[in-house]
Amino acid sequence: MKIKIKTPSRLHFTLIDLNGSLGRIDGGIGVTLDYPNVLIEAEASNQILVEGEKKELAETIIRKAIDKVSPGDGIRIKIQSTIPEHVGLGSKTQFALAIATAINKVYSKDLSIRELANVVGRAGTSGIGVAAFESGGFILDGGHTFGPGKQKEKFLPSSASPAPPAPVIIRQDIPKDWCFVIGIPNVDKGAHGAKEVEIFKKYCPVPLKEVQKLSHLILMKTLPAIMDKDIETFGNSLYEIQKIGFKKVEVELQDQVVKKLINFMMKNGAYGSGVSSFGPTVYGLVSGIEEAEKLFLKTELFLKNHTRGLTFISGVNNSGVEIKEANFLLVGN
């Protein structure tokens, strides 16, 4: 059986609680993007065969997954496209889940997406990427229990945490005419690996006052705006988030051009702008493709005059991963 898998990508707006005074940490909000995507084809094989980019990473993930999903089997995977890595778009989670899902489907196993996330070691801090893969839309996850003997005993990023995927507290469709203009300056990649671990050690716990302020903003501004489909209030809340809690730390660690681009987007038509995850991806929220194209051209010129980089427009994804066998859709939530 040959299958095709197309993943979404995601913007991670902020982690919510890196204080832990209530016995729980992490939590976060984010949104699922239609583009860029991981796109792979897969079929059964008596050995591990990988074609395309990120071959070495794919083989590592396959070996990790196949032992737990379908021991003794192989798989042939053709990687047709991937998501830029270490820029804040959730590339590794989507890539790892696409491969694990391919093995699961090709060999007719019945592991859930969340079980597969455990298999490949994703979502130990943020649950946004797994939920985006699973069902798309706007997502708020509930984080992890915190303390001795709990899901997490230390403040750690997903790459260094064995905690299970966080529960989804809210999942909501985003209006189809909401568009995100994405600008990725050609600067250092976002923090990852050992550097990311050190940032968590240095800046956590976040002051309780900051967590409370952020929680109030999300509960009484961000979430109602999503439910009311109020793009102006929603965008404004995203911009306010840049100055609070752990997100403030993430922004302060960015290259100056990233900070300038956030403000540039706000002055040139975006309802809201900010850094996704550890950056350097900057997003600008607008309504409709015409406004998106205007901001796209201005952002492209901005980057051309500064560091250069990548600029594109993405719509929202309200369905999550697509899995096709032959010419018909198997899964598309």
What does this structure look like?
It is a single chain. This protein is of the alpha+beta class and 333 residues long. The protein has two domains: 2-172 and 319-332, 2-Layer Sandwich (Ribosomal Protein S5, domain 2), CATH 3.30.230; 178-314, Alpha-Beta Plaits. It has helices at residues 55-69, 91-106, 113-120, 128-135, 193-203, 208-228, 231-241, 245-252, 256-267, 289-305, and strands at 2-6, 9-17, 24-33, 39-45, 48-51, 74-81, 138-141, 144-145, 168-172, 178-185, 272-275, 282-287, 309-314, 322-325, 328-332. The longest helix has 21 residues, at 208-228. The radius of gyration is 19 Å and the shape is globular.
Strand order of the largest sheet: 5-6-4-1-14-15
Strand content: 25-35%
List unreliable stretches of 5+ residues. Answer: none
Mean pLDDT score: 95
Count of DSSP-assigned helices = 10
CATH topology description of the largest domain: Ribosomal Protein S5, domain 2
Name the helicity range: 25-40%
Summary, kept brief:
This protein has 10 helices and 15 strands. The chain has about 325 residues and is an alpha+beta fold.
Question: How are the SSEs placed, and which strands pair?
Answer:
Blueprint: E1 2-6, E2 9-17, E3 24-33, E4 39-45, E5 48-51, H1 55-69, E6 74-81, H2 91-106, H3 113-120, H4 128-135, E7 138-141, E8 144-145, E9 168-172, E10 178-185, H5 193-203, H6 208-228, H7 231-241, H8 245-252, H9 256-267, E11 272-275, E12 282-287, H10 289-305, E13 309-314, E14 322-325, E15 328-332
Parallel strand pairs: 5-6
Antiparallel strand pairs: 1-4, 1-14, 2-3, 3-7, 3-8, 4-6, 7-9, 10-12, 10-13, 11-12, 14-15
Helix pairs in contact: 1-2, 2-3, 6-7
